[in-house]
Each structure stands twice: as C-alpha cells, then as structure tokens.
Amino acid sequence: MAKKKCPACGSLNTVKIIYGLPTPETIEAVYRGECVIGGCCVSDIDPKRHCKSCGQEFGGGSLYPLFEMTSFEFYVGGYFGPSHHLYIDGKRKNKLIRYAKTQGGMYVDLKHPKNPINFHPEVLLKEIPLPSEKWLSFIKDLSTLEIPCWNDEYNNVAILDGTQWELIIRLPNRITFRKNGSNSYPPYWNKFTKILKKYVGEDIG
Ligand SMILES: [Zn+2]
Question: Are 4 and 35 in contact (CB under 8 A)?
Fold first, then answer.
C-alpha cells in the first residue's frame, strides 16, 4: 500500500490506525509496527493514520470544519522582495478574497478595506469574488492539505530575516488554527501556494 505523507513533518513513516476491538491479527501487526490501535470510538472524523516519526495523527474528516470557516488570513513575505496578504471574511454573504502585494515588508489592513494604509501607491490591491461554487471548491482544495494537523510553527533558526509566513483560520466557538514559520515550511506548502495561485491569479510564496 502506498505510504501517506505526514502533513506535519513530511515523514513517510506512517501507519494505519485500527479502531474497534483488536483481533489477534491486529495485535500481531501492532507488534510488527504495521499499525496502531486507536480506541473504539469510530466516527467519520477520527484520524486514519499515525506518524511514527513525530506522533501526529491525521487523515480524519478535516473537510467538515473548514466549511464553517469564519475567516481566513494569510501572509508571506519579508523585507526583501514582495509580500503577499490574503483575507477572506467567511461570514460575509458575498464572499471575496482580498489580496494585497506589498514591497519591503509593508503592512496592509485587509480587514478594514477603507484604511488609508491600503491605498499606498506601492500596494497592489485586488478583490476576487468567490461565488458559492468557487467558495466550496476553495474549501475542498484547502481540505486536502490537512491544515489542522500541521505543526504550529516551522522555524529555521539558522537564517535571520528571510521569509516569514502566517496562516490563521478561524472557526465558530473560538476554534483557531494558527500556523506560522520562518524560512521553513510544512510538507504541503507547494500544494498550498498552488491553490492560492489558482484563486488569486498571482504567484504566491
Ligand atoms: Zn510526522
């Protein structure tokens, strides 16, 4: 069977999680390190795989909570080269992606589109409408990345300055996924930036 990559650390050393009362065959497979036992509560959102390198569990129904996303915020950039900023208000009826490209690490305030800081001549500002079918396909694309299972931080301490990034996804009931990094990225980073490019139409990251 094809090994699945861990969304937190990128290791291919991952095994299936077996739920329910284990059979003698299951127990033998556990001893051989081919699977782990995951308790007996079976639901659609239980993780399906366990990473033997970092311990992360993943492959659950990560699709469902993102449908209720109340906001999506993303930043990548640094003092050199362009920075990219994205914001989606998930509570808005007519959803849109607010996108800004800035230079020299300049800040924008996409939550408040009328903020004069957004109208600096060096800020490229775009609003991309997300009609419901596009919104749903955006959520489905994001769900393939298993963002909730990413590490909270990816840091390469050997490099000063360079590129920083932050992704904040908010869900109802104050659930927040906050992921960030400094010159280091999660395993699905390229896939993630491709998805953003697909919707924004700009090279990001
Ligand atoms: Zn891992």
Answer: no
Helix (H, G, I), strand (E, B) or coil at 194: helix
Half-sphere exposure for 14 (CA within 13 Å, toward CB): 25
For residue 135, the CA-to-ligand 1 centroid distance in Å is: 30
Separation of 120 CA from ligand 1 center, angstroms? Answer: 42
How far apart are the CA of 143 and the centre of ligand 1, in A? 18
Residue 58 Cα to ligand 1 middle (Å): 9
Domain boundaries defined on the chain: 14-61, 65-200
* Cα 49 to middle of ligand 1, angstroms: 10
| Span 8-32, pLDDT tens digits | 999 999 999 988 888 999 899 999 9
The kind and range of the H/E element at 50 are: strand 49-51
Q: Is 0.70 topped by the overall pTM?
A: yes
Sheet of 124-129: strands edge to edge? 124-129, 96-103, 82-89, 71-77, 164-171, 175-182, 153-155
Residues 6+ apart with CB under 8 A from 97: 86, 87, 88, 126, 127, 128, 130, 199, 200
